[in-house]
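in:
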């Protein structure tokens, strides 16, 4: 658990141990080694996958997003199309024109644009995210855009 397999991803938990063979003890090593057949749950993020997560930390260079058992980074240049300012007192990223804010505990939707599952643990992984595409960003921003599009559609008159 907590180890990364290049094909399977991050092992989150062992669900069922189906079969455990006879153990072997190697001289000089106090541990017993067993052949085991088990079922496990893995988390494997894919490049270009759309993920939902929670902002866990905001810095002047971006925001860290918790996606399942791993964290990804949205660089300030990838938060919105707007110019972004960092407010250190609030711990927030704020859009200069749009006034959109991104703070800790905000729920967001992002796309994985860079992925490195090298290393043996989740601490050695790097996940780069973007929120600059349609239907991505803070959940409230997405809802506001949907409402705006719905109102635009209702305002048009049908031709007969």
């Amino acid at each position: 658990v907590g180890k990364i397999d290049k094909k399977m991803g991050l092992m989150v938990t062992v669900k069922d141990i189906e079969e455990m063979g006879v153990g072997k003890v190697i001289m000089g090593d106090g541990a017993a080694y067993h052949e085991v057949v088990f079922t496990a749950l893995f988390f494997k993020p894919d490049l270009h996958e759309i993920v939902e997560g929670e902002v866990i930390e905001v810095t002047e260079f971006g925001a860290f997003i918790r996606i399942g058992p791993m964290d990804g980074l949205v660089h300030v240049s990838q938060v919105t199309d707007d110019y972004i300012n960092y407010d250190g007192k609030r711990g927030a990223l704020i859009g200069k024109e749009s006034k959109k804010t991104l703070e800790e505990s905000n729920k967001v939707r992002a796309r994985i644009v860079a992925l490195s599952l090298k290393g043996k643990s989740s601490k050695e992984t790097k996940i780069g995210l973007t929120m600059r595409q349609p239907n991505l960003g803070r959940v409230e921003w997405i809802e506001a855009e949907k409402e705006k599009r719905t109102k635009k559609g209702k305002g048009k008159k049908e031709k007969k």
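note: The chain has a mean pLDDT of 90.
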